[in-house]
Amino acid sequence: MPKITYIEQNGTEHVVEAEEGVSVMEAAVKNMVPGIDADCGGACACATCHVYIDEAWVGKTGKAEAMEESMLDFAYEPKENSRLSCQISIKPELNGLIVRLPEFQG
To answer: Residue 63: which H helix or E strand, with range?
Structure first.
């Protein structure tokens, strides 16, 4: 199973093994990673699963589609590497993915 590293604002790391096909958000929630609220349950309707993709992984996670881009307007301090973790599906190529959590969720 691919391993994903979630890094909290304070530097605390959470490394989880994630099933292929689930979202980065679902893997965080299932493993009780703090800082991913996921209020809408993964429907791309709330921006409370906002993460910053580590620069080395931006190209491998794909580009946000229009709906996700719109929701990122509601995220706390969005950046060029911002994504909603509910929109990133885990696949073998994402083994080792690093995401950083914002200070607050939208």
So the answer is: none
Q: Do the beta carbons of residue 100 and residue 58 sit within 8 Å?
A: no
Segments of the chain scoring below 50 in pLDDT: none
Structural domain for 34, as ranges: 3-100
- Distance, C-alpha 45 to centroid of its chain: 14
| pTM greater than 0.90 (yes/no) | yes
Number of domains present in the structure of the chain = 1
96 CB-side CA count, 13 A: 6
Distance in angstroms (rounded) separating the CA atoms of residues 67 and 45:
9
**Residue 91 domain flag:** yes
Residue 71 in any domain: the answer is yes
Going by the DSSP 8-state scheme, the letter that residue 77 receives in this structure is: S
| pLDDT tens digits along 62-75 | 999 999 999 999 99
- Token pair belonging to 46: 């709330």
The CATH number assigned to the domain holding 24 equals 3.10.20.30
